[in-house]
Design a protein that fits this description.
This protein is an alpha/beta fold and about 500 residues long. It has three domains: about 120 residues, HUPs (Rossmann fold, 3-Layer(aba) Sandwich), CATH 3.40.50.620; about 160 residues, Serine Threonine Protein Phosphatase 5, Tetratricopeptide repeat; about 180 residues, DNA Cyclobutane Dipyrimidine Photolyase, subunit A, domain 3 (Orthogonal Bundle), CATH 1.10.579. Helices cover about 45% and strands about 5% of the residues. It contains 20 helices and nine strands. α17 packs across α20. The radius of gyration is 24 Å and the shape is globular. Bound molecules: flavin-adenine dinucleotide (FAD) and iron/sulfur cluster.
Length: about 500
């Protein structure tokens, strides 16, 4: 039977069972589409990375004998949206059946279901064979529970997949070494020379220009450094194991003006595009750890495993449990617009200047920059979660809705009212100064709360707690913060509010 099989840009799993055998009756189709470049404005590096990764995937599988139709963004016969492309190529290939891999995004899932309903041939959806969990595993695990906590899901996953377990107990005697993941980086230990690919991407940039795809952010046409092939992705993984794993956990929460990546793996694009599977990443890291156990502390490894086996799978499960309603949630009732400096990095606040500037330059910021600098500011200034989501979905190389929205709207903006996080991640300058060297080079004083050179985060923090106090009155994890707020006298609170309102009403002046 002649079949047409669709592969989306984030389904680049070369190890999928579809490719176990070459079948001349099967044609695979992949397309660079305006539908995908335009649903949100993306960072230029993100579009380049996806298109390059898709092209490399097609080349590798064509070399193995599989039959591919590949539509480039500039191809005249490219109809630019899924519906038209699928129907057009069913006709052209005389396909008798249409098959696709289950998308990870709700929007595409709905679209493909609708397309299949309108076809006059049969269709079938298959698993991507990428994640440890199915779409519904988390929902089944928490059935009947009011509150979901990542830790219980993570422990179940460790046991189920027998990862870092010894005789039914967690290796090292503890499930979680989070407490030891909180060191500030002060120039040492040295971070080994960064691995780069320095690819020339001028050709693809010309194509994007010709197609008039609108993007933002910066790119060096002669030195593109994201891994977009399987070989390059595996080399980033090896580099991480050899050079960075040894300090990964210790400096996971650290921030520094001179080091954009610290000991982070930068594997998120390779995993989210499915070039690498989470299982092969975890297996490689554990193999390396067991071979070098004398030199690597378990806390470094557990911290890494928790991010992938725990958080990544957890976010996927929450997404499929809560969508599509999740996308509308705004439980804290925030409505402010995104300041212009999110698109330029031009602000006097040194922490934001670095975190946003780096996001625009690299299409990357590490977790704490996303959460405790940019996300913290967005929440304290009460930006509308739709605006915040749109920015995060566009700017990061790894941003795909299932993992972006749960982290942004959920973990960072608390717009889901506590589905992902048990309390909002907000802080004053105190935390930022504790974990970074940003404040040292800032024109604001991190210790001052009011007055011209007082750090904006300080007044914004108290103003936020005060304005949202109704939302937090029953949240016992907020008790300490709220009782400190209660201790402030009216005059002090008025001054803080006044300063915060000035900042909120004119964010680009600060
Ligand atoms: P490392 O620090 O080396 O961690 C290793 C891996 O663990 C990552 O590659 C990632 O796959 C996984 N991981 C770590 N934290 C998380 C998490 N919270 N949720 C899911 N997986 C996690 N991650 C994305 O992949 N796409 C996004 O769009 C995204 N948006 C985010 C938005 C906000 C507001 C926040 C706070 C976090 C977001 N994250 C997102 C999670 C995390 O910041 C990135 O996965 C990480 O920074 C990627 O860099 P890395 O590969 O160097 O990660
Ligand atoms: Fe950021 Fe405030 Fe520190 Fe400046 S003083 S870097 S604005 S936290």
């Amino acid at each position: 039977m002649k079949k047409l099989r669709l592969i989306l840009g984030d389904q680049l799993n070369q190890k999928h069972s579809w490719f176990n055998e070459v079948d001349p009756d099967i044609t695979y189709i992949m397309a660079e589409m305006r539908q995908e470049t335009d649903y949100v404005k993306h960072h230029i590096q993100k579009v380049v990375a996806f298109f390059m990764a898709m092209r490399s995937f097609k080349d590798d599988l064509t070399d193995k004998g599989h039959q591919f139709i590949y539509l480039k963004i500039t191809d005249a016969e490219n109809l630019q949206d899924l519906d038209s492309i699928i129907k057009d190529h069913i006709k052209k290939t005389n396909a008798e059946k249409f098959e696709y891999l289950l998308p990870d995004e709700y929007r595409l899932d709905q679209q493909l279901k609708d397309i299949c309903k309108s076809l006059d041939i049969t269709s079938e959806a298959f698993d991507t064979e990428h994640f440890y969990t199915s779409r519904t595993e988390l929902a089944d695990f928490y059935k009947g529970n009011k509150q979901m906590v990542m830790e219980s899901f993570y422990r179940m996953m460790r046991k189920k997949h027998d990862i870092m377990m010894a005789n039914g107990q967690p290796e090292g005697g503890k499930w979680n070494f989070d407490q030891s993941n909180r060191k500030k980086w002060k120039g040492e230990p040295e971070i080994p020379h960064k691995r780069g690919f320095r690819k020339d991407v001028s050709g693809i940039l010309e194509e994007l220009e010709k197609a008039e795809v609108k993007t933002f952010g910066n790119i060096d046409a002669n030195s593109f450094n994201w891994p977009v092939t399987r070989e390059d992705s595996l080399s980033v993984l090896r580099y991480f194991c050899k050079e960075l794993l040894v300090h990964f956990g210790d400096y996971q929460d650290a921030l520094h003006t001179d080091e954009k990546f610290l000991f982070h793996s930068r594997l998120s694009f390779a995993m989210n595009s499915k070039i690498l599977s989470p299982k092969e990443v975890i297996d490689k890291v554990l193999d390396f750890y067991y071979d070098n156990e004398k030199d690597i502390d378990i806390s470094q490894v557990e911290g890494f495993v928790r991010q992938i086996l725990g958080w990544r799978e957890y976010m996927r499960g929450i997404y499929w449990k809560e969508m599509p309603e999740y996308k509308q949630l705004n439980k804290l009732d925030n409505h402010n617009n995104l300041p212009d400096f999110f698109w330029t990095g031009e602000t006097k606040m040194n922490c934001l200047k670095h975190a946003i500037g780096q996001s625009l330059d690299e299409a990357y910021a590490h977790h704490i920059q996303r959460l405790m600098i940019i996300g913290n500011y967005a929440l304290l200034t009460q930006l509308h979660p739709d605006e915040v989501d749109k920015w995060y979905l566009g700017v990061y190389i790894d941003a795909i809705e299932w993992v972006e929205i749960t982290n942004t709207r959920g973990m960072s903006q608390f717009a889901d009212g506590g589905i992902v996080a048990t309390k909002p991640y907000v802080s004053s300058a105190n935390y930022i100064n504790k974990m970074s060297n940003y404040c040292g080079g800032c024109q604001y004083s991190h210790t001052k709360k009011v007055g011209e050179n007082a750090c904006p985060f300080n007044s914004l923090y108290w103003n936020f707690l005060n304005e949202k106090r109704e939302h937090f009155k029953d949240n016992h994890r907020m008790n300490m913060m709220m009782s400190l707020l209660e201790k402030k006298n009216n005059a002090e609170l008025n001054d803080l509010q006044e300063r915060a309102q000035q900042i909120i009403s004119n964010p680009d002046n600060y």
